[in-house]
Design brief:
The protein is an alpha+beta fold and 180 residues long. Helices cover 24% and strands 33% of the residues. It has 5 helices and 8 strands; from the N terminus they run ββββαβαααββαβ. The chain has helices at residues 63-72, 93-96, 100-110, 113-118, 151-162, and strands at residues 6-12, 17-26, 35-39, 49-54, 83-91, 125-130, 140-146, 170-179. The protein has an 8-stranded antiparallel sheet with strand order 4-1-3-2-8-5-7-6. The protein is globular. It starts with 5 loop residues before the first strand and ends with a strand. 22% of the residues are buried. The chain binds protoporphyrin IX containing FE. The site of protoporphyrin IX containing FE has 21 residues, from strand 5, helix 4, strand 6, strand 7 and helix 5. Protoporphyrin IX containing FE is lined by residues 58-61, 87, 89, 91, 113-114, 117-118, 120-121, 124, 126, 128, 140, 142, 157-158, 161.
Length: 180
């Protein structure tokens, strides 16, 4: 159990984000909903689904990578970044059975997750939530914000990451496209 504050994503009929599409990428999808509320409490009359996660410490980022990202990563909530994408994901038991050094080798040495992602900054703002330890249905909730004219480029980023060795360990992934 964790003492970290939870962030809740409640999908239903109210909330600041309008659902544009919910697309199952790998494994089971999520039920349809009209809007998503993001906040410190679950809420939504007529809730379709609720997910929560916590912002936790970095596992794989090395100091020089952290520094390089720090120079270019934008904050969340920029007024022009009206598009948001929530991507809940889970990795397989095969991934979780690996040792830390093996996971880092797949994540960056082989898959270049940070190197690929960094090319899309500062256009994309992001936040990673951990949910596995909370007993949630997904291991991670990933959140992205960008301006409407950056959507094609964001799609290209998704395609690049999904071709990596890291993604061969992804057993469930759902794309929830939102607009503020
Ligand atoms: C926008 C550019 C991106 C950047 C700069 C980026 C950067 C990072 C970094 C630095 C980490 C490591 C956190 C740690 O040390 O624990 C990470 C983890 C992660 N990222 Fe990305 N990322 C990007 C895009 C994406 C996208 C588009 C997805 C999903 C489709 C994604 C999914 C994840 C997941 C699930 C993790 C956790 C991996 C694990 O702990 O096994 N990232 N990302």
């Amino acid at each position: 159990m964790t003492r970290l504050p939870r962030t809740w994503f409640s999908a239903g009929s109210t909330g600041a984000y309008r659902v544009r599409a919910i697309k199952p990428v790998t494994g089971e999808g999520l039920p349809p909903a009209r809007r998503v509320h993001v906040g410190a409490r679950p809420e939504n009359p007529g809730v379709a689904w609720t997910l929560c996660g916590v912002v936790s410490h970095a596992r794989y980022t090395e100091s020089r990578e952290k520094e390089a990202l720090g120079l270019v990563q934008p904050p969340l909530g920029r007024p022009e970044a009206t598009m948001a994408v929530l991507i809940p994901m889970s990795k397989s038991a095969r991934w979780w059975d690996l040792a830390q050094d093996e996971r880092r080798a797949i994540f960056e040495t082989s898959s270049r997750h940070i190197e690929i992602g960094r090319r899309y900054l500062p256009a994309v703002a992001r936040r990673l939530y951990h949910a596995r330890e909370l007993g949630e249905p997904f291991d991670f909730l990933t959140w992205f914000e960008f301006a409407p004219d950056q959507e094609r480029s964001f799609d290209e980023l998704l395609a690049s990451l999904r071709r990596t060795e890291e993604w061969s360990y992804v057993e469930r992934e759902v794309e929830v496209r939102l607009e503020r």
